[in-house]
Amino acid sequence: MSHAELDNQARAILTGNDQGGYTIPTKGLYPYQWNWDSVFVALGFATFDQDRAWREIEMLFEGQWRDGMVPHILFRKDDPSYFPGPSVWGTDGGPIPSSGHSQPPVAASVVHDLLAGDTTGGGEERAERLLPKLMNWHRWYLSYRDPDGLGVIAVIHPWESGRDNLPDWDEALRAVEVRDIGPYERKDTSHVDPAMRPHKEDYDRYLSIVAACRNVGWDPAKVAASCPFFVADPGVTFIFLRANRDLLALAERLGRNEEADEIRGWIAKMEEGAARLWNEDLMAHVAVNERTCKQTDGISSASFLALYAGLTDTRTLSALQGHFDRIAAKVRYLMPSYDPGHPSYEPLRYWRGPVWAMINYMIAKGFAEAGDKARAERLRADTAKLIETGGFAEYFSPESGAGAGGGAFSWTSAIWLSWASSTRAEQAA
Ligand code: DGY
């Protein structure tokens, strides 16, 4: 199929998953508005309907909590095809029923990009309305996911990282006591092959963490102090650091000097804090269990996001180039979500190996900005090939290229339209 035909398919997936201003990731498996899915989706809409792209982000922020948090799922209507739904979360923090934690904060970066490409004439005003909301969300992250001011962001749940069953969480998750969950019925494995999803032992603990936070009323300070899972995540940390740089550019463009000064302080602190995640044996950034101060022992696709975060010093860049080439010699398609040389790697199980289009987009952006156009282009070409052969799947096997997880997936379509499609690459050239 030609890229122009795939462009049409991708647009049809986005409009088919559109619920009237916000977009679900895919029908059946994920029937609500997910935070970072929605934000990447805006990049896709921006290629053919900029007004709709802004709307996506605005509707996400309609669910912002009083304390500043922007939840990972907004349950705008009840849908029995998903578990755990609103009654399990038991939250009361904002105007729309929601989950109780957040997800990677890519929104400021995408708002920045929407404004840069805006031809509607209304972009500046819309960005101005979003700026204080973004500021509040970022302040929330710093207060409650880095309460000790270490300059790294922790997640209180694997779901908050967006990378649910990543091997980095295994040890911290095993330490979570399974309690207060009762009998439950998963729905994900009725939509998708169980071999591509997390195990039941993981789910028992996912729900136990939700129960522990529900028991403290989702009070963010209590959650930070007592949550049985609290792990500094290179993925969220680097996405947040990048988002702060983009938020700073936005504040400067809008002439918001006070905010700009505040953000500069955050960036300086995080640039320093990132060293805490650096694993000298592996020569890469990894996760750190904040309850035990123990670093993890594997390289994930998020390790490469250091460049996207602007950490492009020679040591980091050359270490990541070395890892990139080593991994490229092991698998056919980049970038597997976990190091294929690690014993926990599984090519088809969700975040334990599969390739994700939006992660490739961010990694490539980092390489390109660090001056390494060749590796950036390799990532784009691999992503395009995966979509050509595996369709608009949720994720892909780095070995066979097969599409896996949910189908007709929104963010894969959005990343195709905004970056991977050759029609886009030609326009950008
Ligand atoms: C799920 O239900 O698998 C989601 O990833 C949680 O956000």
Description:
This protein has 429 residues and is mainly α. The protein has 19 helices and ten strands. It has a four-stranded antiparallel sheet with strand order 3-4-7-8. Strands 1-2 form a two-stranded antiparallel sheet. Strand 7 and strand 8 form a beta hairpin. Helix 1 crosses helix 18, helix 2 runs parallel beside helix 5 and helix 18 crosses helix 19. The protein is globular, with a radius of gyration of 20 Å. The two termini are 22 Å apart. It binds (2R)-2,3-dihydroxypropanoic acid.
Topology at a glance:
Blueprint: H1 3-17, E1 33-34, H2 35-45, H3 50-61, E2 73-74, H4 86-89, H5 107-116, H6 123-144, E3 154-155, H7 158-161, H8 170-174, H9 188-191, H10 200-215, H11 220-226, E4 231-232, H12 234-253, H13 257-273, E5 278-279, E6 284-285, E7 288-289, E8 294-295, H14 305-308, H15 314-328, H16 357-369, H17 373-390, E9 395-396, E10 403-404, H18 410-420, H19 422-428
Antiparallel strand pairs: 1-2, 3-4, 4-7, 5-6, 7-8, 9-10
Helix pairs in contact: 1-18, 2-3, 2-5, 2-18, 5-6, 5-12, 6-12, 12-13, 16-17, 17-18, 18-19
Please outline what is shown here.
By secondary structure, the protein is mostly helical.
Quick tags:
two-stranded antiparallel sheet; four-stranded antiparallel sheet; 429 residues; binds (2R)-2,3-dihydroxypropanoic acid; single chain; mainly alpha
